[in-house]
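Input record (Table S2, row 443):
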Amino acid sequence: AMFDNLSRSMEKAMRLIGKDGTLTAENMKEPLKEVRRALLEADVSLPVVRRFVKRVEERALGTKVIQGVTPDVQFVKVVSSELIELMGGGVGAKELEPGFPQIILMAGLQGVGKTTAAGKLALHLQRSKKSCLLVATDVYRPAAIDQLVKLGAAIDVPVFEMGTQVNPVEIAKRGVEEGRRLGVDAVIVDTAGRLQVDEDMMGELRAIKAAVRPSDTLLVVDAMTGQEAAGLVRAFNEAVDITGAILTKMDGDSRGGAALSVREVSGKPIKFVGVGERMEALEPFYPERMASRILGMGDMLTLYEKAEASIKEEDAQRTVERLMEEKFDFNDFLAQWKTMNNMGGMQMLKMMPGFNKITEKQLYEAEKQFAVYESMISAMDEEERTNPEVLIKSMSRRRRVAQDSGNSEAEVTKLMAAYTAMKSQVGGMSKLLKLQKAGTDPA
Ligand code: GDP
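Output record (guanosine-5'-diphosphate complex):
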């Protein structure tokens, strides 16, 4: 099946790296070659492969080592992240651009599955309660018009056609007018393909595009295309500025390279994939799912994520411990607040007694409050900062701090209260941590 090779190569790469030490330029050399070879075999174009491998290497060297994660797993994680990135990032692409009606222009070479994809898209929209009109403009092949008419009948979507004797640009224009007249939510314009990229086809596409001003221009690409996919996508994107691609025949035994090239050469997302001949066989494209399908290493990545989460927790705990060990003056008060704002703030606060129900908004308020505290603490002299007792005892000192920091005396009083509260919380946390260490859950 598709990408079998790549997952086998990843296994080999992992064996080469092994479980000891860390990732280095040296021990990644062979594994990276392996990845490179596998991608080329999957028909990803050479420039795309080169850039990909380079990014993996840089990222792997720049990734901080996580305790409990062996370098081989770390390597898979980096490759996986870069694959997701290569295909457009973690979130699925926005399906279709808005429009009233949405006007979707289908572009692509002959035989790639463009007409089929037009029908699939119509069914997809219909299922999300959007009415459609299909427009047939391939005047060079009467069979293509018949095909669309039949597809339309099968899924109960009207098809607009004017036979083969009218200019395609005119048909497209009239088709969209008809769509407006009917009040449909979407008009899908199928166009003529050629066997190869040629100027006639691009010229016609440009003219149709100018005439109907589509919300989406989707390039239909056959997943079997292989190496040429990159050049093809680039040519169409330069000619008609596509908004995305539909990758067809993903159910076949293609080597899959096209999936990895679209985004890299055009900057545009793959929006859907065709996974069969039936009208239902269309799926939105999710880079994350695709990457895990390509690598076939889901378990490994789950392992990584668990280790990463537990490390974050440990970091937070360590901070709490530091917080308890230190003598607790205003400098500590500030430093701890800063730490909390910078790293794992939410987690830290949640570990504190009484703070476990904190919300984002409360946290924001807390941060704002902190800025006020900070201005007052900055206005203190060294003695006041390191020995809060002197402030608690002296009203004139508190007044001076208020004046110098531009706050009211009431704010200073509030700061003293916050300091005292945090100090006692530190005591509370100390107990909590000791209980945790002893293996007893206080809650
Ligand atoms: P067009 O010339 O680009 O309009 O291509 P067609 O829509 O006529 O499709 C060409 C052939 O590919 C037809 O036999 C389709 O049934 C087939 N086809 C289209 N999409 C898919 C797909 O996702 N999977 C498979 N297996 N076949 C497909």
